[in-house]
Amino acid sequence: MITSLRAFAWKDLFAYKTRFCIGSLSLALGIAFALLLLVLTNSLGTFAAQKATDSMGVDEVLITPSYAPGLFGVTKSIKRPLDAKAVEEMKKLPGVVDVRLENVVEHPTSLMIDLFNTKFETDSAMYGIADSEFDKRAKRTVKNPDHIPVLISKEMIDIYNVGIAQAVHKPLVNEDFLVGYVFDLHLGYSSFFRDQTNQKAEVQKAEVVGVVSGIPIVGVTTRFSTVEAINKRLKEENSSPSYIRAYLKTSPGTVYETLKASVTGMGFEASSFDERLGPIRSQLSYVYMILSGVIGMVFLIIALTVFYLFYSQYIEKRYTLAVMKTLGATAGDIARFFLYQALTLYGSALILGAILAAAAVYLLRLALTAALGDSFTGVTDSIRILPADIAIIGAIALVLTLCCVALPTMLAQQLSPRSVLADR
After folding, report:
1. Which residues span the domain enclosing 296?
2. Of residues 67 and 129, which shows the higher confidence score?
3. What residue spans of 54-77 are helical by DSSP H?
4. What is the distance of C-alpha 373 from the center of its chain?
5. Among candidates 424, 415, 408, 421, which has minimal Cα distance to 20?
């Protein structure tokens, strides 16, 4: 009889430890995964807000220069500079509370340098070497007499700024920004006629002395090492802004479409917070959809684990009751057994489900606010308190884990069938 009691006690202890380990592991994984998704949400939201708004407030309208269309639909020049007079006019627009200016320092990319390096032949009028009326100015402004004075075509800059830079969101280039830079010029090296070009052509130093209109746009290219050197120098030495943009702070109730029409009529482009946020919001919706799928799979695994715990407990309960009755357990012993069941499994499963449900609701609220929220205000507000949220959820999860696992375990050890039968 003693042997059978000991065997039953050890079997009950092993089954209890198995359930305890599986339940604790599921709880820990659920909490850890919820905290991980909170961190991911924080990072994605911060990145999206910075990328979409460019220091722009929810109640602000971004104003940028507008370009006049030129030959073949390519922009030729800025319609109107964003100067002091334009700022004063904007301040008088209905709904405008304040105008904030920002200098944007940008650098030409390697593609821009490719466009600048025209194919050099023998006729200086073809490729933009300073000549005739520009000759005296070139000799005055060139830093070294061995440098070839080069004039950059204004049309080429416009083509780059509008046809390339704006289309793919690359930096814009200011005309005065380029004057004075020296680069290696590979004479006779062309991207249009590579097979007919002398690859060992003479290398000379060229210096940009000005930007003018009317220079023909011909073959363009230079070597990659030259492009890298030019870009490096531009980034190191540039200190002047490439262009200026403005932010119009609006009062509550301002009709954006009316304000945009007024700004467009003044010769500028306007974009609201929501317009700049739209593409980012659509991209984030896919990310959150993927995260939601991952959350669903984790919750499914946890649900199957909880089902296994309930099912195994049900099977063991039937077996334990049969053994207890066979060994002569009283009604009080059986009542203590059911209390043990409630404390160890049902209570833990209930609190575990509450924690996971709260985490799921919180993450879903963040995801929906990020993907569909008005003006992204919900996410920007949540971003500011997310570290506190993580700390609070972690503390609550720790306390609940102690309450639903550690304390019931200590009590259940005193109330378990193993203890009851061992006493008998």
Report:
1. 2-55+278-423
2. 67
3. none
4. 17
5. 408
Alpha helices in 327-373 (DSSP H): 331-341, 347-372
Does 236 share its domain with 283?
A: no
Q: Two tokens at 144? A: 């070294």
3-state secondary structure at position 331: helix
Task: Give yes or no: residues 133 and 15 share one domain.
Answer: no
Considering the domain boundaries, does residue 96 fall inside one? Answer: no
Helical residues (DSSP H) of 163-272, grouped into ranges? 175-178, 224-237, 256-265
pLDDT confidence band for 195 (50 / 70 / 90):
very low
Q: DSSP code of 172?
A: P
> How many residues are given for the chain?
424
Whether the predicted model's global pTM rises above the 0.85 cut: no
pLDDT (mean) for 45-71: 62
Which of 265, 230, 304, 272 is closest to 30 using CA atoms? Answer: 304
Q: Is residue 261 in a domain?
A: no
Which residues lie closer than 8 Å to 399 by C-beta, 6 or more apart?
none
Q: How many domains does the chain have?
A: 2
What DSSP element (H or E) covers 212? strand 203-212
**CA pair distance 330, 424, nearest whole angstrom:** 11
Indicate if 126 and 231 belong to the same structural domain.
yes
- How far apart (Å, rounded) are the C-alpha atoms in residues 167 and 292? 33
DSSP letter string over 24-41? Answer: HHHHHHHHHHHHHHHHHH
The neighbouring-strand residues paired with 220 are: 118
Based on C-alpha coordinates, what's the Rg of the chain?
36
Element (H, E) at 319: helix 273-326
Tens digit of each residue's pLDDT (9 = 90 or more) over 217-276 = 433 333 444 444 544 554 554 444 456 778 888 887 777 888 888 888 888 888 876 676
Whether residue 356 lies inside any domain: the answer is yes
Residue 127 contacts residue 187 (beta carbons within 8 Å): no
Domain assignment present for residue 71? The answer is: no
Residue with tokens 């190191």: 236
DSSP H or E run through 206: strand 203-212
Alpha-carbon torsion 376, 380, 381, 386, what sign? positive
> Do residue 126 and residue 221 come from a single domain?
yes
Angle at 151 between CA 147 and CA 153, to 5 degrees: 150
